[in-house]
Write a structure and sequence with these properties.
Layout lengths: L3 H7 L1 E3 L9 H4 L3 E3 L2 H5 L7 E6 L34 H18 E11 L4 H10 L3 E10 L15 E8 L11 H7 L8 E4 L8
Parallel strand pairs: 1-2, 3-4, 5-7
Antiparallel strand pairs: 4-6, 5-6
Helix pairs in contact: 4-5
Bound molecules: S-adenosylmethionine (SAM).
S-adenosylmethionine (SAM) binds next to helix 3.
């Protein structure tokens, strides 16, 4: 019988302060558990084929409990410490430092996907352009089951935006599966949006 627990355990490398650097053969096909910036600084340059980044969105929720209008039930919002920043400047620095290291570890023809909501995706896009990333597309994730719009004072927020980019304008021969895009999109090549159900699993 396959021991699923030890198979999963063998795929995880827990980062420790005393580890100074990682060689590619030590970490290939593994998940490194640790602070992203600290871990990235230990990786060699130009080794990564593709990056998918889901950073804190800096949702800036009020400190009081959020209750639904009329029914008054409590909203289970993301209010974890990792999403709290003292200011936009602090958030921007956090994102900029991580993206700087990400750019260093990306191969010349690697691509990066970054996803966030309207709270931060525009800031992230500006930072990426300032760092020299070259944006290929923005892609829209359309949620078929978004959070209900209880107050009705603005549009239902049913999308998240992905930025798809290469390291710089000179990047050539990055991976794009046109045939696959044709299957799932509209038009000759496929359009920059996809429908998806939103699912959130909370762990304690
Ligand atoms: C928007 S959530 C995305 C979570 C996950 N990708 C998902 O889809 O459920 C941002 C994640 O970044 C993690 N995070 C925040 N700061 C981090 C850091 N400095 N290093 C590594 N991960 C961090 C948080 O623990 C959180 O799980």
């Amino acid at each position: 019988m396959i021991d699923l627990f030890s198979s999963v355990n063998n795929m995880v490398v827990v980062d420790k302060e005393k580890i100074e650097k990682y060689e590619v053969n030590e970490i290939i096909n593994k998940v490194i558990l640790g602070d992203a910036l600290r871990v990235l600084k230990k990786l060699p340059s130009s080794v990564v084929d593709m990056v998918f980044m889901v950073p804190p969105y800096f949702l800036q929720l009020p400190s009081k409990k959020l209750r639904r209008w009329k029914v008054k039930t409590e909203v289970d919002a993301v209010n974890d410490d990792w999403d709290k920043f003292g200011s936009f400047e602090e958030y921007d620095n956090f994102i900029k430092n991580i993206l700087t290291e990400i750019k260093r570890v990306m191969k010349p023809n690697a691509t990066i996907w970054v996803i966030a909501t309207y709270h931060s995706i525009f800031r992230i896009g500006k930072i990426m352009q300032d760092l020299g990333f070259w944006i290929l597309n923005d892609v829209h994730w359309v949620k078929t089951n978004p959070m209900l719009n209880w107050l009705g004072v603005r549009f239902t927020n049913a999308t998240e935006t992905l930025i798809w980019a290469v390291k710089d304008k000179k990047a050539k021969k990055y991976t794009f599966n046109k045939e696959w895009a044709k299957k799932f999109g509209i038009g000759k090549v496929g359009a920059n949006f996809g429908f998806c159900q939103y699912a959130m699993v909370k762990s304690d």
